[in-house]
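Thought: the user asked what Ketosteroid isomerase-related protein looks like in 3D. I have the sequence; next I should run the structure tool and report back without guessing.
Action: structure_tool
Action Input:
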Amino acid sequence: MDERLSVIYKTLVKNFYRLLEDQNLPAVVECFAEEGYFWDVELSRRYRGGREIAEGVAVYFTAFPNAHRELYEMHVSGAHKAVVVVELSLNGTQQGPLVLPWGIIEPAGKNIHVPCCEILSLEDGKIISYHCYIPYSMLLRQLGK
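Observation:
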């Protein structure tokens, strides 16, 4: 891959993560293409379109208002349509309810440090797909569940 394109795609993804940390929901949604989606793989939840993506992301904003993503590795492949694989950890303190398909986990006030992998497909500067692989067994264990 052309190094210049790799830098551009990495910058787009880093900007997306910054918007997530800032909890700027309208700007996060704006990063997605019209047909883009967010897939929380382990929960088997796919959020399509701005309203659904906003709802899916807001769950984590509510539960972890101080969430921070520490980025470890970022790999880019492709040109016009790029795939960016990110190895990271999700860190923060559960200060609000975490709404999951099987129920609500009330605020535990506990810190989490959960290693994750996320795969983003981008085209024309927009996110086509955002696949999140979060090990919920580890997250729940860290919350004392």
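Thought: the tool returned a structure. Summarizing for the user.
Final Answer: Structure for Ketosteroid isomerase-related protein predicted. The domain at 3-142 is CATH 3.10.450.50 (Nuclear Transport Factor 2; Chain: A,). Residues 10 and 56 are 23 Å apart (CA to CA).
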